[in-house]
Amino acid sequence: xxxxxxxxxxxxxxxxxxxxxxxxxxxxxxxxxxxxxxxxxxxxxxxxxxxxxxxxxxxxxxxxxxxxxxxxxxxxxxxxxxxxxxxxxxxxxxxxxxxxxxxxxxxxxxxxxxxxxxxxxxxxxxxxxxxxxxxxxxxxxxxxxxxxxxxxxxxxxxxxxxx
Length: 163
What we know:
Elements: E1 2-8, H1 14-29, E2 35-41, H2 53-61, H3 76-81, E3 84-87, H4 90-99, E4 108-110, H5 124-127, H6 130-150
Parallel strand pairs: 1-2, 1-3, 3-4
Helix pairs in contact: 1-6
C-alpha cells in the first residue's frame, strides 16, 4: 500500500481538498485499496477544526463527504511512515523542514511538480478562489496518479477517466 500525506498550513482548505479529491479519484480508478491517503497541517492553528465551509461545500457539491475530517498537525511518525508527503506551496515545505529538519526529503514534493506547469497552489483562505484551488489540486492529483502508474506502482484500471 502506498501512503500519501498532503500538507498545507492549517489543514482546513487545500490539503483536505487534495486528500478527498485523491480518494475520490482512487475510488473511480478502482485502486482505493492500493492507497492510504491523509492530510495534515504544518501549523497548530486549526487543530481540531473542521474543513473550511467553502471547501466543504465544494466537496459536497461533488458528492464527496468530508464531515468527519478534523485538522491535525503532521507528526514525526508521519514523516517516517508515509511514502509521499505532498505540499501545496514552498511555505509549507519551509515549515515542514523547520519542524523535522532531519526527515527524508526525498519523499517530499509539491503537488503541481507532478504536472507540466509546476508552481505553488495559492491559499484560497486568502485568495477566496476555491474553484481555482480545486482545479489545480485536481490536475495535480491526476498527474500524481499517472506518475505512480508510469513508475509501475499502481495500475489505473479506468485510465480514461484521467485523460
